[in-house]
UniProtKB/TrEMBL annotation:
Organism classification: Eukaryota, Viridiplantae, Streptophyta, Embryophyta, Tracheophyta
Gene3D superfamilies membership: Ribonucleoside hydrolase-like
Localization in the cell: Cytoplasm
GO biological process annotation, one example: ribonucleoside catabolic process
The enzyme's E.C. designation: 3.2.2.3
Keyword Hydrolase among record annotations: yes
Annotated protein name in UniProt: uridine nucleosidase
One Pfam family it belongs to: IU_nuc_hydro
Domain of life of the native organism: Eukaryota
InterPro entries: Inosine/uridine_hydrolase_dom (IPR001910), IUNH (IPR023186), Ribo_hydro-like (IPR036452)
GO cellular component: cytosol
Length: 321
C-alpha cells in the first residue's frame, strides 16, 4: 500500500479554469476530493454552487458533497467584483447547461470546513481557488482551525509582478482583502500560488486542438467551454493561449515539487489604491520597531514553476478521462 491519499476540499467559484482544476482533481489518483465549497468570484455564490453541482454531474461524481459558501465578504460587503466577462455570464462559457439534479448539503461551507478539519486533524488540504472569505470565516468560527488543517493552498496574489484587476491586486485577493489578510496571518501551513507563476502556465491553441481530438470526457467538455476564455485572453493580453491559474494551484497541492518557494510574512493591503495588494517580507532583516509585521507567521509563496510539466499533467488527466 502506498501512502494514504491526501484529503482535499476545493473552495471554488466555477469558472472555466476552476472546471478544469476540478476535473483534473477528480482524475488525480494521489488525492481524494472530500467536498467542494463554493464562493463568489467568477460568478455569484448561488451560481457557483449550481456550477459545482453541474460539474460533478458531468463527472458522474454525485457522491461528493457541495456546501454553499458566503454570499458577502467578511466585512459583510455586498458590492462584489464578479468576473463574468472572463468566463461568460453563466461562468461556464455561456453554454446554458440544463440545471443540475443535485442539491447542496444543508451545512454551510464554513461549518463543513470546520467539521472536516476536526474530523481528520492534520490530514485535510484546502485548495482555495476564489476569494478567501469561507476560509477566514472558518478561522473565526474555530480558532483551532489553523492548527487542525493540514495545509491551505491558495490561488492568489501577484508577488513581484502586477495584478490582474489593476496593477496592485490579483482578483481573488481583491475579492476580499480583509479575509485574505486573516488567512495569511492565521498561522496555518499556507502556500500561495500567485500570478507570478500562473502566468507562466499557458494552454495553447495547439493544446486545445489535442484536447478536442482526444476521447477524454473531461477534455471534450472543456473544449465546449474554452472558446470565450480564449477570446478574453486574446483581447486582454494579446495572447493566443489561456492561463491555467486554477489547475496550477491545484497541482501545487498534489505535487509540490513542480514549484519552488520562498518563505516570509505576507500582509494584504486593505485600503487605498493598492487595496488587495499582497506584500511579502522575505528579507532576513530584523526591523527596529514593533509594527504590523512583527511576529507574524511565516507562509510559503511559489516563485518558479515547471510550466511544461504542469501543462502536461493537466492535459494527460483531462484526456485520459
Amino acid at each position: 500500500m502506498g501512502a494514504e491519499r491526501k484529503k482535499i476540499i476545493i473552495d471554488t467559484d466555477p469558472g472555466i479554469d476552476d472546471a478544469m482544476a476540478i476535473f483534473v482533481a477528480l482524475n488525480s489518483p494521489e488525492i481524494e476530493v472530500i467536498g467542494l465549497t463554493t464562493i463568489y468570484g467568477n460568478v455569484y455564490t448561488t451560481l457557483a454552487t449550481r456550477n459545482a453541482l453541474h460539474l460533478l454531474e458531468v463527472a458522474e461524481r454525485d457522491d461528493i458533497p457541495v456546501a454553499e459558501g458566503s454570499h458577502v465578504t467578511i466585512t459583510k460587503g455586498t458590492k462584489l467584483r464578479i468576473a463574468d466577462f472572463v468566463h461568460g455570464s453563466d461562468g461556464l462559457g455561456n453554454q446554458n447547461f440544463s440545471p443540475p439534479k443535485g442539491k447542496a448539503i444543508d451545512q454551510s461551507a464554513v461549518a463543513f470546513l470546520v467539521e472536516k478539519v476536526s474530523q481528520f486533524p492534520g490530514e485535510v488540504t484546502v485548495v482555495a481557488l476564489g476569494p478567501l472569505t469561507n476560509i477566514a470565516l472558518a478561522i473565526e468560527l474555530d480558532p483551532e482551525f489553523p492548527k487542525k488543517i493540514g495545509q491551505i493552498v491558495l490561488l492568489g496574489g501577484s508577488f513581484f509582478v502586477n495584478g490582474n484587476v489593476n496593477p496592485a491586486a490579483e482578483a481573488n485577493i481583491f475579492g476580499d482583502p480583509e479575509a485574505a489578510d486573516i488567512v495569511f496571518t492565521c498561522g496555518a501551513d499556507v502556500l500561495a500560488v500567485g500570478l507570478n507563476v500562473t502566468h507562466q502556465v499557458i494552454l495553447t491553441e495547439t493544446d486545445r486542438e489535442k484536447l478536442a481530438q482526444s476521447n477524454g470526457k473531461f477534455a471534450q467538455y472543456l473544449c465546449k467551454i474554452l472558446g470565450i476564455y480564449f477570446s478574453y485572453h486574446h483581447e486582454a493580453y494579446e495572447t493566443r493561449g489561456v492561463y491555467l491559474h486554477d489547475p496550477a494551484a491545484f497541482l501545487a497541492a498534489v505535487d509540490p515539487s513542480l514549484f519552488t518557494y520562498t518563505e516570509g510574512m505576507v500582509r494584504v493591503q486593505t485600503n487605498g489604491i493598492t487595496r488587495g495588494m499582497t506584500i511579502l517580507d522575505n528579507t532576513k532583516k530584523r526591523y527596529g520597531e514593533i509594527t504590523e509585521w512583527s511576529d507574524k507567521p511565516i507562509v510559503k509563496v511559489a516563485v518558479t514553476v515547471d510550466a511544461p510539466a504542469v501543462v502536461k499533467m493537466v492535459m494527460e488527466r483531462l484526456m485520459n478521462s
